[in-house]
Description:
By secondary structure, this protein is mainly alpha-helical. It folds into two domains: 103 residues, Potassium Channel Kv1.1, Chain A (2-Layer Sandwich), CATH 3.30.710; 72 residues. A three-stranded mixed sheet has the order 2-1-3. This is BTB domain-containing protein. InterPro entries: BTB/POZ_dom (IPR000210), SKP1/BTB/POZ_sf (IPR011333).
Amino acid sequence: MTPTPQEFFKTPSNLRTFRISTSTDDLFVNIQFLAEYSEFFNIMLNGEFREKQEMKATIPDVEADDLIDFLSFICPVNYKLNQVITESNIYNLLYFSDRLMCPFIKEHIKKWLIGNEFKAGTYTADVLVNSAVLLHTQGFGGAEMTPVFKKLGSMNLTQVSKTLDIIDPTIKAIFEEKIRVHTPYTFARREPGNQWGDYDYRARIFF
């Protein structure tokens, strides 16, 4: 039976000998392979650090399943590489590509955001706003962030506002202005008035 990514990374092998302890579980990775993509792991592998000697590292503030989103994007699982960005993994890919210094994933995210796949996709306000916060704080440009604001501008403003209320007020103000620019203007239907109604002085001028 083919193991899931969760089962794959939670099981050590002759290649996956480096242990990463998270808040929820231990994961096992090929540190040499990861070091080719991640500057964080490259420094750990080539420097004089305790983690290198003990072949284990602790990242106590993350959960195993979140880190697996990052690992399974870089590392082949069951001899297959699955580099697909979705609503369910975009936040974790953004977070870990920055924290673990992985420009390879950042480039994939940039191309995805400006491409047709993101444009055609459906996303919740929570995912879009939280991802936009990471894009903003990590210094992504307008080309990558504008598609996100366009998505938010086309959504239910009440739901978007609830999500914006929980982020930093300074960032919230910036986002609200960007979203407003991309919110379609809705014209209210006006009923035709009575040409000779009592409110029209022209109807009474000669009476």
